[in-house]
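I hope you will forgive my troubling you with a question about protein structure. I should value your view on which stretches of the chain appear to form regular backbone elements. Here, with my thanks, is the record as I have it:
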Amino acid sequence: MNKRELDKIIKNIPGDLFMVVRDVSLLSCSVFGESQSVIIKKKFGIGFFNFTFWAVNNNQVDFYRSAKENTKFSKVLAERYQSDEKYANNLSKELIKLTDWFNNFVKENKKIVDFKKKTKSFFRNYKNFYALHQAVYWGGDYLSKTKTINKKQRQHTLDTLNSAYKYNELVIPKIESYFKKLKITNFLYDEVIKGINKRPKERSLLFLGGHQFILSPNETNKIEKIIKDKQKNTSSLVKEVKGLSVSRGVYKGKVKLVTDLNNLKGAIAGDVLVTHMTRPQFNLQIKNVGAIVTNEGGFLCHAAILAREFNIPCIVGTKIATKVLKDGDLVEVDADKGVVRILKKAKIKKYV
């Protein structure tokens, strides 16, 4: 990337970016990025995702997007669901149909030679799948917070969306495992279609105004630093964190902070799990934790669904939990009121 392109990106970094952490490959990022910046606009007539940034770090991805743009997208879908229940039903059915398609595809095309014969149809469906996945989740999340006269109809729509989202949530982890077996995780999807075999260096992706930019590790670090500098806050002074209660109850315990998915194994029974968002890979550990607190999410998110299933106090959508709460902090998770209170900060280890 030349200096002019990099300067253009830096100039257009939104001030309201929020970050989520995902254990997905560069290959999936190339599909999701185009889906978000191009396919969603074509499919739903909503062109809000002008800036998305997929920063690859230590086998996981820091994903940044505009909170304002995300809210607009969510609101438009929720309004459609509210005015037309059939619209929500049709999107849910389409998502379930694609889920079945991918489950069958992985079973029937186990070798790279089989996959290469069908790459175009696979990636076309994967882009559509991601667009539907986003619409069902974010539109449903916004609808769950919307007041309406017809509460019965809203709940019926939410149940439909929730069922479709639960049905599809293992597709992406399954496809990631499939990509690893085929040894194509570090390629872009168009490189796979073209049959490029030369192993590329580590890269990240940024989509700006519908255009894709491929970033080196140095360029990635520079942009992430600028984003984090814009987001500096006085987290050390914060005494409590607020979010959305999705599974009620009150619990006191020590924080287990998981910002790197590799740290998940360190969680023990009774911990307060604090993370960006739980994934299906968290399921075994979640059963034993005392409470869950996440940066992102809403009523339909993975953490909310599992917390209700196992009757675990859970607060999601705090935005800043992973920045404020540290490993070993003693906290009270009041999921009746949506508040996490810091009772005692963990001692900082000193090394001599």
